[in-house]
Amino acid sequence: MWNRQQVKEQAKQIMKRNYWKMFVVTLIAGILSTDYVTVIQEVQGFVPDVVLPSMFSSILSFLSMESIVGLLFSIFIGFAIRVGEQYYFIKNHNGNPELSEIFQGFKGNYLNVVKITLIMELKIMLWLLL
Fold it and tell me: By the 8 A CB rule, do 74 and 35 touch?
């Protein structure tokens, strides 16, 4: 069993070895897997329905379409990117992986990655309701 000092020393060595690559992977994953749905819903929440004239109703319908597109983007692109990010950090523990490892979620059985991640997210959301 590891103690705290061993884990901390090992983490320091890994950070010294690949700090900037880890930073870039986290930045890319953060940008590509951002939850655009919540951003768009927050923008919609600032605009009250009573104040808007009827000519802006098409803009609101466009924003709801943006919500749907954002949700689909975060499911089909964001989930695979998050899986690839975790894969990179697992491989980073033992070696010096390439930056392309972040796209590992798209290789192999892509639909299985999306399906399993979606099921996991739904289970987390349902447990939060308890």
Answer: yes
**Residue 105 in contact with residue 88, Cβ under 8 Å?**
no
* Alpha carbon 88 to chain centroid, angstroms: 14
Report residue 60 as tokens.
Answer: 């609101």
Average pLDDT, the chain: 81
> For 20-58, how does the pLDDT look when each residue is reduced to its tens digit (9 = 90+)?
999 999 999 988 887 655 555 565 565 555 554 555 555
**pTM for this model (two decimals):** 0.72
- DSSP string spanning 17-83? HHHHHHHHHHHHHHHHT--HHHHHHHHHHHS-TTTS-GGGHHHHHHHHHHHHHHHHHIIIIIHHHHH
Decide if 115 contacts 108 (C-beta within 8 A).
Answer: no
